[in-house]
Design a protein that fits this description.
Order of helices and strands: EHEHEHEHHHEHEHEEEEHEH
Largest sheet: 6 strands, parallel
Strand order of the largest sheet: 1-11-8-7-5-6
Radius of gyration: 19 Å
Shape: globular
Helix content: 40-55%
Strand content: 15-25%
Bound molecules: NADPH dihydro-nicotinamide-adenine-dinucleotide phosphate
Oligomer: single chain
Amino acid sequence: MHQIIDGKKISAKIKEEVKAEVALLKEKGISVGLAVVLVGEDPASKVYVGNKKKACEALGIASFEYLLPESTSEDELLALVEKLNADKAVDGILVQLPLPSHLDEKKVINAISPDKDVDAFHPVNVGKIMIGNYTFAPCTPAGIIELIERSGISIEGKSCVVIGRSNIVGKPMSMLLLHKNATVTICHSRTKDLSDVVRGADIVVAAVGRAKFVTADMVKDGAVVIDVGINRMADGKLCGDVDFESVAPKCSYITPVPGGVGPMTIAMLMKNTVAAAKNKI
Ligand code: NDP
């Protein structure tokens, strides 16, 4: 019988813990602040930024929102990042991606102070994750580790297969699992016999971006399956990278979409912001 890993419940618990930490810091006279920068009118990005603001407000974190027009120049954006780097009230800086095409994302990310880079995308933080000595990890993979561990699943010694090698999910996910002493295999679009590789996994993390990519025949009995995918279907509904209906009966644990990995990302962003604030003490 499979168990559903409830991301809503686990993320709510993490937010509660963060709220308590923020209150404790306030008692010591330390405020916590997150700056979120959005350039342009992308509707999905607007929703994400709005949700981040709401989460900050609910947890007692000061939220500084910068909604810049599509026409913002790179120099203007870099100047804002510099200003936020120097602002003592700002512990975390998040520039919502994707940026409009005339702006160089790499240049902007590299301009954020690594100490305030709560997304952990700056090369300094990427390197620290590689070494295993880091203050914050990218929110989605860090959230997945929380989902697994808080469900009472041990990672050590397990055979883990991560499908996807992006810089924001697949690669950091693999490193975090490795630091937990898993044996990690990374699959991607050129992997041969992918089904065979996935079938050997105790823990599967699917971050492919293709609806129902992982099917029942690819998963061994009793596996733990984590579905990162967010795919919008023709009927408007969200669908993961895992064919939930057929895969779930074979699993020991599985995350649903929605309600699995998704809610963890903001919770971990809040956690990273508090970690950045504690770092300045
Ligand atoms: P990317 O498109 O950057 O990466 C997808 C990865 O999947 C690539 O490494 C690609 O391989 C691999 N891939 C694509 N097709 C195949 C295939 N047929 N066989 C094997 N591997 C394949 O996506 P992201 O990592 O950014 O995101 C992945 C999914 O997770 C998306 O659905 C996204 O929306 C979702 N997501 C969810 C988040 C959440 O909060 N829940 C946060 C971030 C992402 P290759 O490198 O060879 O091209």
